Amino acid sequence: MVRPNRWTAPTSRPVRVAAVGTALSLTALLSGCGLLDGSSGADESAAEGGGQVEKSDITIGYNPIIDVAPIFYADENGYFADEGLNVTTERTTSGAEAIASLAGGSLDFTYGSHVAFMAAQASGIADLKIVGDAYTALEDNVAIMTVPDSGVETPEDLADVSIGINAERSLADLLSISAMTSNGVDVAYDDVNWQQMAMPDLPTALANGDIKAALLPEPFLTQAAMEYGAFKVLDAAEGPTAEWPLGGYVVSADFAEENPRTVAAFQRALVRASEALVDQGELEQILPEVAGIEEDIVSVLNFGAFPTTLEAERIQRVATLMSQFSFIEEPIDVEDMIVPLPED
């Protein structure tokens, strides 16, 4: 019988951050204008290595979470300006909203879950191109958590209890059902008692007994451990979902075709920022504003990694797992969705 790992947050530990090559979200509004408010002062000068961009003023959709730290860092440090881009951001509340905004033209680029992108692509709702891989889950970065006296002691117990997620047919329940089945829990997706609520409400609902377990990413995972004694039942980023690609950046297929130099400029700035954020000090400084995480908790979080490559094979894992659990009806060849990173 598999026993739960009663992991709890220590008072301090080193932050683990990595830029990933071939081996390899937190809801809070930004205060004030934020970092990407169009103040970079970029003009239509030649973009580094790519000639003049077709569109210098771009709008990026985002959620205020750890995953998007590189785009804020890139703006603050002038990486977008160096590429001839003047960036503004628009906060989105869901993948569906972001994708609709791409189609309507109010967004040029958007961050989102790969699960949302694959679902839209498979259903024909949108024709998307992936231009960046945003964030990768590593060990203890996202997990199914419970609290003492919940009655949940082993992974097998999850088959008969309520599990909190932020949305159905999303990244949360995909990771949860994969972790459960790969750890020998004999339950079908439709037989799980999924309970949908806003991510910030999940730790409190867990502590109050409204749900018995919850899929929590950082920083909610560590917050729940520190405030309520929550502990890990299953890590959602190991086994079949180890080093899991959580989210990325997309544009519409039309935008990619019409603005190849603009896309390449965005990609260069993103990769440059992702490389810089290997430095945990740089990441710690930017996260309180980017993701609304209190400064005293930043240093004890378990971070994932910011990819510096864009590999179809890695992201194909998302589409394959979605097919396995019937999240999508038609298979997707992710290679067809990828806009390769520029060589220079």
What does this structure look like?
This protein is α/β, with parallel strands linked by helices. The protein has 2 domains: 18-138 and 243-337, D-Maltodextrin-Binding Protein, domain 2; 142-240, D-Maltodextrin-Binding Protein, domain 2 (3-Layer(aba) Sandwich). The chain is 33% helix and 20% strand. It contains 12 helices and 14 strands. The protein has helices at residues 69-76, 79-82, 95-104, 114-123, 171-182, 202-208, 220-228, 253-258, 260-276, 280-291, 295-298, 312-324; strands spanning 18-20, 46-47, 51-52, 57-62, 86-91, 109-113, 128-137, 142-146, 162-165, 193-196, 213-217, 231-235, 244-252, 305-307. The strands form 4 sheets. It has a 5-stranded mixed β-sheet with strand order 5-4-6-13-7, with helices on both faces. Strand 9, helix 5 and strand 10 (193-196) form a beta-alpha-beta unit. Helix 1 (69-76) packs across helix 9 and helix 6 runs parallel beside helix 7 (220-228). It is globular, with a radius of gyration of 20 Å. The model is unreliable at 1-50 (pLDDT under 50).
